[in-house]
Amino acid sequence: MKVVIGTRGSRLALTQTKWVIDELEKHYPELACEMKIIKTKGDLIQDKPIDKIGDKGIFTKEIEAELLKGNIDMAVHSMKDMPSELPLGLRFTRTLKREDARDVLILKEGYASIEDLPIGATIATGSKRRKYQLLAYRSDLNIVPIRGNVDTRLCKLEEEKLDGIVLAAAGLHRLGLADKITCYLPMEIMLPAPAQGALAIEIRQEDTKAYDLVKVLEDPVSSIQVEAERAFMDAINGGCHMPIGAYCEVIGTKLRMRGLLGDELGKKLVIKELCAPIGSEKQLGEELASVLRKEFEKNDW
To answer: Which of these is catalytic: 22, 47, 55, 81?
Structure first.
């Protein structure tokens, strides 16, 4: 049986897709997987910040078009890049084992943590969520934009006048670059994007064969986390343009979830936490979004 899997062409995207293929072929020796690289709008436009490009699905639309046409059988994405609503006719499989959800700092030699940085240190990130949380912790920092894949950003750290960059731990781990990490940012300082560190496998709605193929790779805890965090994102209706963060922790039979909501300019930043029993993932995400919205809309800022 042959399966064609669509992916972006970055080293990280290819590494993630290769991991999925290896796992599938491990479980199904008769399976022959083919990788198809598809350029997305986000890959082609590198001279603008993500929030200035205008589309929520800037890393997914072209791949989804190929999926709907039947040119590929499934697509591998970073779940955090996925818009809250999928195109009609597409769905996710269950969630695979999630990587570390935290963000990390990669700093120039001589610095060991965010606290070590001198006043006015320059840190690069392409994310408003990261920018405003960094400034909430260290208002003196000079936060500048950055675009490009992981390797490009690491090069910019060496070549440009930067003291550090912020990246997702998951991508560095998957690329075998964990040794580049200076420090992990604790959730108390930096809430990640909803579903950060998780992979999304997208298939056609009616394709039960593809769904059943991937079912063996499901990780129950990761599925719970992603369902809660994406329910939060759906209820907030957030994407690249609105700073939001969320992380759901599974503790025994209970869920503890923290969420963040900010405005476009970083003047408002609200963080709340709620708990609920396992089985109420969607309701927890929606309730946390509602609580944050109510707090956010107060006028006493």
So the answer is: 81
